[in-house]
Amino acid sequence: MPSTPPVAPRWRRGAVPFLLALLCAGGCASKTDLTAAIQVTTPSSTPSTAPMLTTTTGAPPQPTMEVADVVDGRTLVSSDGRTVQIAGLAVPGECWARAATEFTRKTLNGKTVKYSTTFGTSAVVIMPDGSDFAVEAVRRGMGRAEPGSTTSLKSAQSAAEQAGLGLWGGECGGKDTVDQAGAQNQKQSGSDDVYFASCDAARRAGLGPIVTGQPGYGKHLDPDGDGIACDR
């Protein structure tokens, strides 16, 4: 009789698939859980739109001083006793020094001005209206620009010289001193007899301000009596 292969016990036939299923379930679950737990993130390439914190530093305020006295056309004394020389102005000449001093005193004395030191006691002086005093003085012929001065001062001096204002006209004629012969010739020529009924008339003739002793000066043109007519 042919032999019949032995039959595995029933419990063995069911145990193997059960163990395989159990192992697979445990392994697959672990693999699935591990894959879900790992999350890969990549940095965003979009630039941040958050505002950046910036700091700004303002310029320091320009120092000020109160003018207590005027020594000459380019030298001031502050209320705390400091001496300040106005930058850009040459030493006043003998012929026009008085007029320059009177102009500076009338314009700056008792006023609070801004200044910026250039060298030593020399400083650029800014008037209350924001204009540079040196440029204004030279423009009116009440000062001479130093050699190598700024373009603004050179332009102001050129305009005053062409118009014959202040030190560029009258007995000075652009010189620091006037010889006696020149002064006598002016008197003989009758230039001191020039008369203007008003400052408007003087300005139309290209004059103003007009200092005492210069042709065209008249007390009726100088109501404040400071020796400078048609200065406003």
What does this structure look like?
The protein starts with 9 loop residues before the first helix and ends with a strand. Among the domains are: 64-168, OB fold (Dihydrolipoamide Acetyltransferase, E2P) (Beta Barrel); 180-229, no CATH class. It is globular and about 50 Å long. The chain has helices at residues 10-37, 97-108, 133-139, 151-163, 180-188, 199-204; strands spanning 64-72, 75-78, 83-86, 112-119, 122-126, 210-211, 228-229. The protein is built from six helices and seven strands. It is α+β, with helices and mostly antiparallel strands. Strands 1-2-3-5-4 form a five-stranded mixed barrel. A two-stranded antiparallel ribbon has the order 6-7. The longest helix has 28 residues, at 10-37. Helix 3 (133-139) packs parallel to helix 4 (151-163).
Strand and helix map with partners:
Blueprint: H1 10-37, E1 64-72, E2 75-78, E3 83-86, H2 97-108, E4 112-119, E5 122-126, H3 133-139, H4 151-163, H5 180-188, H6 199-204, E6 210-211, E7 228-229
Parallel strand pairs: 3-5
Antiparallel strand pairs: 1-2, 1-4, 2-3, 4-5, 6-7
Number of helices: 6
Instruction: Give me the CATH fold name of the domain at 64-168.
Output: OB fold (Dihydrolipoamide Acetyltransferase, E2P)
| Alpha carbon gap, first and last residue | 150 Å
Order of H and E elements: HEEEHEEHHHHEE
Q: In one word, what is the shape?
A: globular
Radius of gyration: 47 Å
Helix content: 25-40%
**Strand elements, count:** 7
CATH architecture of the domain at 64-168, by name, is: Beta Barrel
Strand content: 5-15%
Highest-level CATH class of the domain at 64-168: Mainly Beta
